[in-house]
Amino acid sequence: MRKEINLIIKPNYHxxxxxxxFPLVFExxxxxxxxxxxxxxxxxxxxxxxxFVGRGxxxxxxxxxxxxxxxxxxxxxxxxxxxxxxxxxLNKRKDFYYKEDTTCFRVFNSIGDxxxxxxxxxxxxxxxxxxxxxxIYSFKDEIYDKFKNLVxxxxxxxxxxxxxxxxxxxxxxxxxxxxxxxxxxxxxxNVKISVDLNDGPMVGFFLDQRETRRALMEKYxxxxxxxxxxxxxxxxxxxxxxxxxxxxxxxxxxxxxLEKTLQQFKLNDMDLEKNKIIVEDIFEYFEYAxxxxxxxxxxxxxxxxxxxxxxxxxxxxxxxxxxxxxSIKILKERGLILASTNLEKMDMDKFISQIKEGVEEExxxxxxxxxxxxxxxxxxxxxxxEGNYLKIIMFKILN
Length: 399
Ligand code: SAH
Hints:
single chain, alpha/beta, Archaeosine Trna-guanine Transglycosylase, Chain: A, domain 4, Rossmann fold, seven-stranded mixed sheet, five-stranded mixed sheet, binds S-adenosyl-L-homocysteine
């Protein structure tokens, strides 16, 4: 039997949980934390008067110590509960399953679909489960059991993202069905993307940037010289090239990015003369490009929230404006910058003010052309707006 524990909400958190029905449990929001022993235990949040507030599970993530999954006292957290959530989420993705030009999307988006700590992605007949705590992983048998009867699949894979620091646990990620012959090719808006579900924490690209990639291909890339920084497997360059860019340069620090980027480029018959791949620290590249007086029409900035390289430490909440400034130095007159961040604690306003600071310190002005947020399959829970983590701004630099 699963343990049940009653956690008493601290008085100054009553509003958050009782009125606002916030789904994430904070350790500092409850009194008797000594009760938190076994991840996967059922948590009943109660107020000081012993009355029921909400029910969820104990599972440590960097954000909090668990998720409230229901505010109904009678609702149990069991196979039936999970089945209901899965059916609802699958129904909401019906249109995605019918699309022929896009064969990869998010099927289940954590608390946005009612179960914090779990995401499920679809890659042409293969599914990938991401488990973000030991607690949610302890429900895996109930969840897989219901899921496998709801969809057709060739194979299911998983990533356990809950070692000590919330990192990925390296192991064979295959779960059930038949093994894929990776890399497999999926499509996004008819562009081919190479994906490997069993090769470390990352699969080859990020589903959440779909709308940005589409806009780049359809509206922005044509005729432009493009610098793609923090390029990973070069997917932004692929969409640029297919949108008839004049040239692209993809820069990433990781040695493996070269081979992975080449793979994506070849899959899409890209011209390797016009589309260069450079393995280098982007901060070194910025210096080099400035010295050589290189100038780009469009620069793509999609850094991780935190990055440490030999001579630089980058923290998105503090240093974003630095990469804006460095970009402006190697941007043509009236050039474009596509800036992206997935840092939850930096909201759109804070992001824009960093951009503004950077631009003004370079003695320029800017005009926002377009903003992007998460695509439709990345559902957001209106009680947890922080889940709307992705902020992307396309802006033009003016004198
Ligand atoms: N823009 C990519 C995703 C970027 S993931 C896409 O759309 O698919 C972050 C990448 O930044 C990783 O590939 C990592 O190797 C790279 N990176 C981290 N620090 C870097 C640095 N100092 N210079 C260049 N690349 C860096």
